[in-house]
Amino acid sequence: xxxxxxxxxxxxxxxxxxxxxxxxxxxxxxxxxxxxxxxxxxxxxxxxxxxxxxxxxxxxxxxxxxxxxxxxxxxxxxxxxxxxxxxxxxxxxxxxxxxxxxxxxxxxxxxxxxxxxxxxxxxxxxxxxxxxxxxxxxxxxxxxxxxxxxxxxxxxxxxxxxxxxxxxxxxxxxxxxxxxxxxxxxxxxxxxxxxxxxxxxxxxxxxxxxxxxxxxxxxxxxxxxxxxxxxxxxxxxxxxxxxxxxxxxxxxxxxxxxxxxxxxxxxxxxxxxxxxxxxxxxxxxxxxxxxxxxxxxxxxxxxxxxxxxxxxxxxxxxxxxxxxxxxxxxxxxxxxxxxxxxxxxxxxxxxxxxxxxxxxxxxxxxxxxxxxxxxxxxxxxxxxxxxxxxxxxxxxxxxxxxxxxxxxxxxxxxxxxxxxxxxxxxxxxxxxxxxxxxxxxxxxxxxxxxxxxxxxxxxxxxxxxx
Length: 466
Hints:
Elements: E1 2-8, E2 12-18, H1 25-40, H2 45-80, H3 84-100, H4 102-112, H5 114-138, H6 142-157, H7 160-171, H8 177-206, H9 208-230, H10 240-244, H11 254-261, H12 264-294, H13 300-327, H14 332-353, H15 360-374, H16 381-388, H17 393-422, H18 426-446, H19 454-462
Antiparallel strand pairs: 1-2
Subcellular location: Cytoplasmic vesicle, Secretory vesicle, Chromaffin granule membrane; Lysosome membrane
GO molecular function: purine nucleotide uniporter activity
Protein name: Voltage-gated purine nucleotide uniporter SLC17A9
């Protein structure tokens, strides 16, 4: 059999089979059969839309349970006599746990399927949310139990986004990934809005315990619905045998991982995601303080709600735009770079405008524009990892998110130092702009959209024999 490479502008090399009498007939036939089998595993458009809505709701509930503690922190600190340092320890423990399960969650998702990891994790962090008030009253030292509970929440929720990346790479064609990831990503903003409104209302009427009970219960119900109706009640969901077999999913060796990380395109997505996450965490953490100190008479609900209301349709629009451009024949890599240019380049223009003397209304407008354009990364670097390495997208996204979480925590702390040292918010916004531009230049210079994971390594070995 003769095997040669055929290139198209979006996907790089493909195997083209020409049947001849050759000692490599079996290899080529298996390769072509495998490719056809993988195409058949993609969701149909109606099924994909159902999954998109379900995953959107799941991400919304993820953030409802994640933000429940920050909303209730003031009431809990008053009841349990926590200091500011102790409250910060409880809130910060989530992110340390969040860093440790990113790669593991992606690796397991690549092996057994992201949907299985999602449903198990959701049942676990939903249950943990329900039992959080119980743990607070059960232990004699609530500060210790709540710190442990938040750390475990971080561990359990750390697998969510890597699992989404793995699931999307396995089930969604490249021309529709932008819409799915941007839509599901908008669930984070929706969840922040929902828990901010409904959670504050429950906090005032029923007490802080109700926020945990209700958000946790809905999360467990979502996990049950996903298992019962979309996974068809499959049991057991994950077995040791499923973790051990390779099947059609990649089983990467250390050598192949090293080869993967030597690729400029892989390094580019890691650096760019690190910069994106760092700036987002910084803005998310410090913008409320910026508004309170700069505009003390302003109403909190305005600057806490309006930017997120803008972010939701912006995220949806970016997904539709990127998929439309790809379906019209535009180069996939160019579309990813365009989306990232809006996310890090255009948003930086509005961020730097915050450095000057502006009124409250202009500040809200600039922050809303910044957060709106930032969401375009859901159709840029966040999807690009699935273009590059669909066979290990979950694990690779876990690496990206781990780096982003660590750098985000460090940049948030450093921003606080800048505010104290300079006494000016302009230093923070300038820092955000510089980090954004570093990530953008890296992505524009080195980003690609062709497959460079282990499957292409295998193809390159097969192509030696003609």
